[in-house]
Specification:
With 574 residues, the chain is of the alpha/beta class. Helices cover 34% and strands 19% of the residues. The strands form 5 sheets. Strands 7-3-2-11-18 form a 5-stranded parallel beta sheet, covered by helices on one side. The protein has a 5-stranded mixed beta sheet with strand order 19-17-12-20-21, with helices on one face. Strands 1-10-9-8 form a 4-stranded mixed beta sheet. The chain has 15 helices and 21 strands. The mean pLDDT is 94. Bound molecules: flavin-adenine dinucleotide. Flavin-adenine dinucleotide (FAD) binds at residues 28-34, 51-54, 58-61, 63, 66, 69-71, 168-169, 202-204, 214-215, 218-219, 222, 254, 365-366, 388-390, 401-405, 408.
Length: 574
């Protein structure tokens, strides 16, 4: 067997470097979904490892620059039906009705259990969530440091739960098509060979791959590459949410769209009005801004789209930091409760909108698609489960505000229940260093022999180039020719990049492996964006600007055959 593996792969799996541990379940990720799953699984008494790149309470669930997260709740049983119709409608023919039905029926139970995760919810009313046609109660929570402290205390109740932070899941291991383990790297670069019959991937979405994103740095689309390499499928990866974020004066702060009510000037980098010439005949600037103030994420399904499209066109023609907005004095005195909280958030960040301008650009915010799951959070690979933003098949082309947190909590809980049952009766296979080496080969070993004249690819410039290219070409404005070029470029990078060689040249090993994973995930996303030749929800194609009835109910699923990504059009399940 060793003959078929290169020295570099063996060097990675060298037995003296490998630490072996055995668990009944490994949960990857310590955001809302991973925490919910780990606590529920630990309660059953099985041996659980919670492994996360970030700290306890990390990921998008604990993004520092926000005043908290919210979850939309059905008011009662009758409203649950209406709510279901509405979220399915927003999904525009590609959402998972059954998964949404389960999610809506279980969300109140999960809210009642939030204190187990150290979170203290409160309830607010007064404004419909993004894309929701009516107002509902929103359950909200904040206070990340306090939550972390309370959760750490709660976790001492579970001696069977091991928490390993600052560690990366690198590769899932399978035996006869079922999960048998996981290779991970800890903070000291120790290779951990973890034997486990079941894994829950809760490692968040893909938006961290973009140059400008509203995610913390520990979220880099790992789940998609881990799952693909183990044989699972992705779905709806072309649908991402882009939200305007501040580029100046406070980089990465969320823009409060309600403030557009008082916006009196939108200009490009040269100070020229951005919208006047960008709007179709009959649409006024005021109406475009009014529609844009109703939801944070970009959608092409209403006239607000011209705002984001103009912004990105301006960026492409040289206005790197986005467009400049100015506001009138009434912003300072508006008594609307939501305006007051937007004002407070800006002021907390040292920004007085009545006196100063801000610059904004479309930031990648949240994935609507991901690893295809069923109502138990199970993927098509026995023993592999997925929850939270990493999972796909629930949300569709547009997603209501306050249903991503619900998905993380509900499918975190459901995947834990199903994975614990599975782990109880699953056969155990002990992966060897050879199993690990064989299965790591596709990640570690470039398939393309580099031309001697080409400088070897290094993670930092590669990630910068990838992030920039995604941000410019796979943002709110997409075009087939550009996506095809980008796809080709990412594929070449994926074939040529050697994380081991890069690590030998000085790149931290974990960063090098994260980069190899990022390339697989990015290629899958761009392939889906290029294949969907229409515009729908958050996916806008300048070369196919209309929603095409021929695509209604068609979802794009991706999987790996050997090293090659495959894509299939699948009619949506009823
Ligand atoms: C600013 C902001 C505001 C939002 N507001 C709302 C809202 O109000 N309502 C709503 O419904 N949704 C909201 N969302 C979306 C929602 O918060 C997320 O979809 C959800 O919290 C994701 O939770 P998660 O547990 O799936 O992933 P995350 O919280 O992103 O956690 C991912 C975890 O995986 C770990 N990880 C990543 N890769 C690896 C790896 N290779 N190995 C080991 N660990 C890894 C990370 O360290 C982290 O612990 C918001 C998102 C953002 C960014």
């Amino acid at each position: 067997m060793t003959d078929r593996l290169s020295d570099s792969v063996w060097a990675f799996c060298e037995p003296s470097l490998i630490q072996r541990e055995s668990y009944d379940l490994v949960v990857v990720g310590a955001g809302l979904a991973g925490l919910r799953a780990a606590v529920d699984a630990a309660r059953t008494g099985i041996r659980v490892l919670l492994l996360a790149r970030g700290q306890l309470c990390s990921g998008a669930s604990f993004y520092p620059f926000t005043d908290g997260l919210g979850c939309q709740l059905p008011e009662n049983d009758a409203d649950a039906q209406v709510f279901l119709q509405e979220v399915v409608q927003a999904g525009s023919g590609v959402a998972g009705e059954e998964l949404y039905r389960v999610q809506i029926s279980q969300i109140r139970r999960e809210i009642d259990r939030l204190s187990e995760l150290g979170l203290e919810p409160y309830f607010i009313q007064g404004r419909a969530a993004c894309f929701a046609p009516r107002e509902r109660t929103i359950c909200a929570w904040n206070g990340w440091d306090e939550a972390r402290r309370r959760l750490s205390k709660n976790l001492t109740d579970y001696p069977n739960l091991t928490v390993l932070t600052n560690a990366d899941a690198v590769r899932l291991l399978t035996h006869n098509g079922s999960i048998c383990g996981l290779v991970a790297l800890d903070s000291q670069n120790n290779r951990l060979l973890l034997q486990t019959p079941a894994v829950i991937l809760a490692c968040g979405g893909v938006c961290g791959l973009y140059r400008h994103n509203l995610n913390p740095a520990d979220v880099t689309g790992s789940a998609a590459s881990l799952a693909l390499s183990a044989g699972a499928r992705l779905v709806n990866t072309e649908f991402l949410q882009f939200i305007p974020g501040l580029t100046e004066p406070v980089y990465k702060m969320l823009f409060c769209e309600i403030s557009l009510w008082h916006c009196n000037s939108v200009t490009d980098a040269e100070g020229r009005p951005l919208l006047q010439d960008a709007l179709p005949k009959g649409l006024s600037v005021e109406e475009c801004l009014r529609q844009r103030s109703m939801h944070a994420p970009f959608t092409c399904s209403d006239d607000s789209r011209w705002f984001d499209l103009a912004m990105l066109r301006g960026i492409r023609s040289g206005g790197d930091t986005g467009c400049s907005l100015r506001f009138d004095a009434a912003f300072g005195t508006d008594t609307n409760e939501f305006m007051a909280s937007a004002r407070a958030l800006y002021l907390q960040n040292g920004i007085d909108l009545t006196r100063q301008s801000i610059r904004i650009a479309p930031f990648a915010h949240c994935a609507n698609g991901g690893v295809l799951i069923n109502a138990d959070g199970a993927t098509s690979v026995p023993g592999l489960y997925c929850a939270g933003e990493a999972a796909g098949g629930i949300h569709g082309a547009d997603r209501h505000g306050g249903v991503a947190t619900a998905a993380a909590l509900v499918f975190g809980a459901r995947s834990a229940a199903a994975a614990c049952l599975y782990a109880e009766q699953a056969d155990r296979f002990c992966p060897t260093a050879e199993t690990a080496a064989e299965q790591l080969t596709s990640l570690l070993q470039p398939t393309r022999t580099a031309d001697c004249s080409e400088p070897p690819l290094r993670a930092m410039p590669l990630r910068k180039a990838l992030g920039n290219a995604l941000w410019l070409k796979a943002n709110v404005l997409r075009r087939g020719d550009e996506l095809s070029d980008l796809l080709c470029q990412i594929h070449t990078w994926r074939q040529s990049y050697s994380p081991i060689a890069d690590a030998r040249a000085g790149t931290p090993l974990r960063k090098a492996l994260e980069t190899a994973q990022a390339l697989i995930t990015a290629e899958a996303m761009v392939l889906a964006m290029n294949t969907r030749t229409e515009s729908r929800g958050g996916h806008y194609r300048e070369d196919h600007p209309f929603t095409d009835p021929a695509w209604q109910g068609i979802r794009l699923e991706l999987f790996l055959r050997g090293d090659k990504l495959q894509i299939e059009k699948i009619p949506q399940p009823k």
